[in-house]
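User: Structure tokens for this complex, please. No commentary.
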Amino acid sequence: MEALAPGKTLGILGGGQLGRLIAEAAKALGYRTAALDSSASSPALQVVDLPIVGAVDDVSAMKLAEASDLLTLEWELIPVKVLEAVAQARPLYPEPSVLGLIQDRLTQTNFLRKHGFPQTPYGEAATATGWKYPVIIKRRSHGYDGKGQCRLGSEADAPKAAEVLTAPCVWEKLVDYKAEISVILARGRDGTVAVYPVAENVHRDGILHATRAPARIPRDVADKAVALAMKIAGALGHVGVMAVEMFLLHDESLLVNEIAPRVHNSGHYTLGGCAVSQFEQHVRAVCGLPLGSTGLIAGPAAMVNLLGDLWEKGPPKWSALDAVPGAKLHLYGKSGARPGRKMGHYTVVGPSAEAEFDRADERLRQLRG
Ligand SMILES: Nc1ncnc2c1ncn2[C@@H]1O[C@H](COP(=O)(O)OP(=O)(O)O)[C@@H](O)[C@H]1O
Ligand SMILES: [Mg+2]
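Assistant:
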């Protein structure tokens, strides 16, 4: 199939910040953009040429398909039957089968096991037998940003899991890791792959807090992480950007935590930090354009998430960022600043990036006022 020509319309299923950033990149490449979300004020619907308001179901998704020449998504939990229906009407990348594998944590981890990718011991959490404490219980579907999860130190904690266990869950042995890292890569329709520098991530309460790239890990470990992510992308037959979250253990071995078949929060540093951002790269991959350069353009890069908590005492004191060389603020256009809600992020590119990563908490205190 030919590459999507500039001037054609790229339709995005989902209207969150990831969709917004994909749409902005697509526009810069000369595409018209459309997006579907249930809320007219969602981040992506504010910026696309053709916003479509509606539940992400067959009917509205077909409206998006009819208005678009090619489709992609920014959210992996769109029902597979909706994806299959629109894929009949227009080319859709990634393909519905990829999402089908990933949406359910058990199917995802079984896929990883089948291919021999390293993981922490896990199982279905239908009964409390065989759990390896300390354990983390996770909903099989619709979990994100640490939601739908519960940690148990020992069997005595088991009652704490009652609420999470009201829906099907998996258990995973809690990993004692040295660092969390992620590999962001793009895979084109022809199977070519472009990989970004490995990112090092800090999570708080299950939500990404800050990222730095390159990660502070030995070269051979980074190479191993990249090889692992590339093998996973190939085994999935993924097209587009994807992220593989991994745990780096004290003995320098790696375990795969989860796969995200889309642009990822831990890849936000690439916007400004790399020659071609993950958002442009995603558009390139799904539209059939050659993939672009993933190199860091001005040395290391850092990204700090701005959650709704920051708005508790009123708008953040943005001037706190003025003193940081290379800092750039990105806000997603969300109005309700609820605690834990991702409202925006800032990146720092260049010589001050690594120090900013270490000082992120201090900067967030200043922003809070
Ligand atoms: N098995 C585990 N051992 C230790 N920490 C974990 C484990 N699973 C998840 N976590 C922590 O919780 C965070 C969120 O969990 P994750 O499975 O990535 O779900 P999601 O990002 O979809 O909410 C991870 O980034 C990690 O910090
Ligand atoms: Mg995660």
